[in-house]
Amino acid sequence: MHSTFSLLSSLVVCLLLALPTDGYDPLITRDNRKPIVSTEFGRVESVEVYDGSEKEPLNLQFFTLEPSSLLLPLLVEADMVFFVQTGSGRVSWVEKGDITHMDIARGDVYRLRSGSVFYVQSKTTATGEKLRLNALFTRRDYEDTLDEFIGTYANLSDVVLGFDNKVLQASFKISEELIKEIKSRKKPQMIVPAVLKEKTEEDSNWKLGILEALVGGGSHEERSNKKRKPFNVYKKEPDFKNPNGWTLTVTRKDFPPLKGTNVGVFMVNLTKGSMVGPHWNPRATEIAIVTHGQGMVNIVCPSKKSQCPRTSFKVKEGDIFMVPKFHPMSQMSFSNESLSFMGFTTMAKKNHPQFIAGKLSVLNTLDPDIVAEALNLPKSSVQELLSCEVRAEIR
Amino acid sequence: MHSTFSLLSSLVVCLLLALPTDGYDPLITRDNRKPIVSTEFGRVESVEVYDGSEKEPLNLQFFTLEPSSLLLPLLVEADMVFFVQTGSGRVSWVEKGDITHMDIARGDVYRLRSGSVFYVQSKTTATGEKLRLNALFTRRDYEDTLDEFIGTYANLSDVVLGFDNKVLQASFKISEELIKEIKSRKKPQMIVPAVLKEKTEEDSNWKLGILEALVGGGSHEERSNKKRKPFNVYKKEPDFKNPNGWTLTVTRKDFPPLKGTNVGVFMVNLTKGSMVGPHWNPRATEIAIVTHGQGMVNIVCPSKKSQCPRTSFKVKEGDIFMVPKFHPMSQMSFSNESLSFMGFTTMAKKNHPQFIAGKLSVLNTLDPDIVAEALNLPKSSVQELLSCEVRAEIR
Amino acid sequence: MHSTFSLLSSLVVCLLLALPTDGYDPLITRDNRKPIVSTEFGRVESVEVYDGSEKEPLNLQFFTLEPSSLLLPLLVEADMVFFVQTGSGRVSWVEKGDITHMDIARGDVYRLRSGSVFYVQSKTTATGEKLRLNALFTRRDYEDTLDEFIGTYANLSDVVLGFDNKVLQASFKISEELIKEIKSRKKPQMIVPAVLKEKTEEDSNWKLGILEALVGGGSHEERSNKKRKPFNVYKKEPDFKNPNGWTLTVTRKDFPPLKGTNVGVFMVNLTKGSMVGPHWNPRATEIAIVTHGQGMVNIVCPSKKSQCPRTSFKVKEGDIFMVPKFHPMSQMSFSNESLSFMGFTTMAKKNHPQFIAGKLSVLNTLDPDIVAEALNLPKSSVQELLSCEVRAEIR
Fold first, then answer.
1. pLDDT tens for residues B287-329?
2. Of C307, C362, C381, which has the smallest distance from its Cβ to A182's Cβ?
3. What is the DSSP pairing of strand A329-333 with strand A285-299?
4. Closest residue to B119, CB basis, from A11, A283, A370
5. Domain covering C22-225, topology
6. How close B272 gets to chain C, by Cα (Å)?
7. Predicted confidence (pLDDT) at residue A151 exceeds the cutoff of 80
8. CB burial string C346-370: b at 16+ within 10 A, e below
């Protein structure tokens, strides 16, 4: 009996170690997010999504800052593509010795590069909205994919104070007493009350101008030229729009700062009782986060059926669902509630979603005789199937 | 005793899980092909070849269609490079909403892109030849290599009818009864009798012209410009040819449709009692399929000897053999039978096969004194070895 | 009890199989090098370094040739980037049918391409110095990363004589007796006494000219144009230099022959009692070999603390230490001895080392209020920390 137990145990251990996943579960509900930090000023939650295309799971993090709070400086060890779900604030980052400040607001998309040290400060708004960022951490390219010594980010205090006293003393040219005192202080929480007064962009540009005038040199002009701006999804014309809803995608083609990643961002809004028609993505895997409402998701696993434990499921605000490429899917809102979700796609370029029904569908492109054989249907049924001539993106 | 068994079992399990292969076997005989489907109209067989360079094995499939048969539409989830071994027919595919028809005949090479929906119809020929395609399924590039949720292809009926009734009903705007009836029908076999009358290419172009004239627009011209044609290996000058045989390779440089894959195609023909001289490929791994006759293959595993269970073996029609790059090899026909094989190479570009004997050999490039030391031979033997001044590709 | 043993054993087996490493150890001491060959004419030692970014560990080899010795021809199956630590000699290689000879001396860096057959001959110098090469074997690019059938290099005799007698006989057109005699000879050691008289470069060019004049054709000129030269680290201006030491890096930007690899080479020299200030590399992982002296290395693992078994350790001549990107580090010489190390970086391009203290530090770029919060310090301490305004690369 013991040996049976031992066999089973070791089998389980082996399976866990050797297979990053034993099947694909498309749904991660809100309560399966892992808390990283939670204070009265905000919280950070994390979810690992195994997308099947990388050895390492993708890391999705949710940053929530109360108004006038500060996320302390982090050194990011992967590229961080983020979307501002609510609120507004300012993100500041140091890259190659330069600091950049950028105002952010609801609907903004941006990408911070691996190796940046960044911090975020939330604004106080009339409505008291929290600043919420949904962020995907991703390796930049194939050269970075399998780096198991590298994490997502590190606190600045761990980076600076992790050295031996002797090294710190020699580096900063300070006394041993001060080093000891610095090291004895309590490590700060990740999110604290804001310490900087809220500056407008004009302010900081002005200050920058003064500073650089004092320092001298034409670097101000150069820096102004490459002033960073986020991409706002609410200011772009949707890819598809009708009274039932709209969809929009942001790729590296639309937004140069995404270049060098293979990540895109998308947003879908459905009014009550609507649906995104059945379709598949030939190039992109989608990781979606429900930002509002509830609905149903239907997924088909045509070629690897055993790996689909769940093909039809309900989603609600805060849930995450993942659909690998080539997996046909459809999303629906309920008749009494609208549904919005945004998400990240891996492999942003040249994805042509292929719809199954309607004017542009693959069935309507094929010869009806072939469709009849493929589905084993009489011609009359095929004619009915293909008679739907409207575009079917959202209905 | 039980516990010993359990230890051994779990060890075996671990080994199977953790190592994709426990050694390299260069030979897969014809009877080790795995049947996928077999009807009176044709059959499909599959072989997985682990080439050592990808986590996932390469998938090789053999499609055989009786005259006037139809391979029903498949959604390919990987790039499919194919070679027409015998017969003729037509392949049709839908990519990004357009359908393309292309006639194919013996010796043709083509590549269908992942995400295409394709079907194949065989022609009736005077000789009653079957249409036989040898196909390699391959991930397009590094971004696609490790996708374990993705298979090779899916049947169109699984893709379309995998959705919930409610979703299908809303999508196709048809009655619940019709949905139920459609779903209740027996799933068709993968290969069925042909349903389309055999059209010549002119016919279909003509029809396309009419259609587009009705629809309006200049898209016909655009489409004609990018008319797809396969590459025929029998119409190209061989890379090397003498009375003992010939060899030919097709790379993405020769044939633009191969661009974006790292797959090339090659063909070797040996008359009776001939051989391809000892050589290695510094860049390409070869996966060969014997298309005619019998012969002997000799492989050397110089740097990882333990991984070579088989270094000299007989091959016959239908057998598959795989030679990783840097592994010296030689193929011979028997004195009473010719030998032909075609195959796929991974990493198609810039491969310079390096021959060991003859005028262009690496030995003849080195200083004879160095060769003498390297092989620990007296100078006289080296002189004899290097005296063979003819080119040694085939002899 | 047995079953517990079995469980534990299989667990260990699983762990060993499934995880290429169970933690990151930055130090490999000299006595952990694995000897490959050792004769009176020289020796070869090997070390495998798991850098976390590839499935397969990186292979580092140390070639030591006594004066006037010969490393027999090897077929390299990976790119080989080497650094000449001491001595001088000549490396010769055959690539695509051409032979190239190149003189090498202390401080030279070069890269041989996978697929080359090369050999090395050491010179007799006045000081009797040995020729010592430190070499990193690396897959060229993503297409080559996971090739488990391929090793590092193979001896020419194994490559040539691994074939069956019949194949060799047919290829070289020699008698069966000679084949048998050749195969019966004792396999030579990897390093033997030099057999070629030491030629100057002028000699060989002259000989080459004669040869090509006889053969005819303008290929001599063409070959002269692309005459290969190594990069010498002692002839380049250091990236940073002050009385305490200097640092230098060689990337593919500096030295075109490194193109196509993601490997760079660096060198650091510290005088007595000096240090390389705390910094991290955002793009490059460093593998360093101590070439002279002794010192201390201090590493911080900020984001994955559990994976740092060793953060402060002594290094001495011949030791190897590896620092993954994003890991802050500092190296110090002792007060009574200088310290030199050279090494290889993976991901050579666009690495901007980020220093923690001094004028260009990330702390000085941030707002002092933010630094105070991040380190949980009073403003006065922050001012002291940031007051050090000198550049801190080496101090």
1. 999 999 999 999 998 776 556 778 899 999 999 999 988 899 9
2. C381
3. antiparallel
4. A370
5. Jelly Rolls (2.60.120)
6. 14
7. no
8. bbbeebebbbbbbebbbbbbbeeeb
Quick check: C162 and B300 CB within 8 A?
yes
- Chain B positions touching A345 (Cβ under 8 A) are none
Nearest to B360 among C77, C97, C171 (CB): C97
Give A259's DSSP letter: T
CATH class assigned to B23-225: mainly beta
Whether the per-residue pLDDT at A190 is higher than 90: the answer is yes
Per DSSP, B61 falls in state: E
pLDDT of residue B2: 46
Determine how β-strand B117-122 pairs with β-strand B69-76.
antiparallel
The answer to whether the CB atoms of C366 and A99 lie below 8 A apart is yes
At the topology level, CATH places domain C231-354 in: Jelly Rolls (2.60.120)
Structure confidence by residue, pLDDT tens digits, B235-245: 999 988 999 99
> Hey, how many other C-beta atoms are within 10 angstroms of the C-beta on B309?
11
Which segments of chain C have a pLDDT < 50? 1-22, 142-146, 201-225
Tell if the CB–CB gap between A185 and C395 is shorter than 8 Å.
no
Domains B23-225 and B233-386 share a fold: yes
Q: Provide CB contacts within 8 A for C8, sequence distance 6+.
A: none
Q: Which helix (H) or strand (E) holds A246?
A: strand A245-250
The burial of C22, by beta-carbon neighbours within 10 Å (0-12 exposed, 13-18 middle, 19 or more buried), is given as exposed
Of B7, B18, B324, the CB nearest to C149: B324
Q: What is the pLDDT of residues A288-316, one digit of tens each?
A: 999 999 999 999 987 765 567 788 999 99
Q: Do C376 and A186 touch (CB under 8 A)?
A: yes
Q: Give just the sign of the alpha carbon dihedral A8, A12, A17, A22.
A: positive
Nearest Cα of chain C lies from the Cα of A315 at a distance, in angstroms, of 33
CB pairs under 8 A between A and C: 192
Distance from C-alpha of A166 to C-alpha of A144, rounded to nearest angstrom: 33
Beta-carbon separation of A52 and B147 below 8 A: yes
| Contact between B365 and C97 using a beta-carbon 8 Å cutoff | yes
Mutation target vs C (from B141, B375, B391, B395; most C CBs, 10 A cutoff)? B375
Q: What is the domain class of A234-386 according to CATH?
A: mainly beta
pLDDT at site B55: 57
Q: Which among A98, A143, A150 is the nearest to C324, CB-wise?
A: A150
Is-contact C78 C54, C-beta < 8 A? no
Q: Do B304 and C3 touch (CB under 8 A)?
A: no
Q: Which of C17, C143, C188 sits opposite B18 (nearest CB)?
A: C17
Answering whether pTM is above 0.90, one says no
| Contact (CB, 8 A) for C122 and C109 | no
pLDDT at position A228 is 86
For B33, residues 6+ apart whose C-beta sits below 8 A from its C-beta are B45, B46, B47, B62, B318
Q: Which CATH number fits domain A21-225: 2.60.120.10, 3.40.50.920, 3.40.50.150, 1.10.10.10?
A: 2.60.120.10
Residues A358, A359, A361, A363, Cα dihedral to 10°: 90
Higher pLDDT, A201 or C352: C352
Domain B233-386: CATH superfamily is Jelly Rolls (2.60.120.10)
At A221-259, the pLDDT tens digits run: 334 345 789 999 999 999 889 999 999 999 888 898 888
Residues of A in contact with B168 (CB under 8 A): 278, 357
Rounded to a whole number of angstroms, the distance from the CA of A271 to the nearest CA of chain B is 15
Mutation target vs C (from B54, B376, B387; most C CBs, 10 A cutoff): B376
Hunting for tokens 């090793």 — which residue is that? C151
If you count residue pairs, one on B and one on C, with CB atoms under 8 Å apart, how many are there?
198
Please compute the mean of the pLDDT values over residues B370-393 and round it to a whole number.
Answer: 84
Place of tokens 């090294």: A167
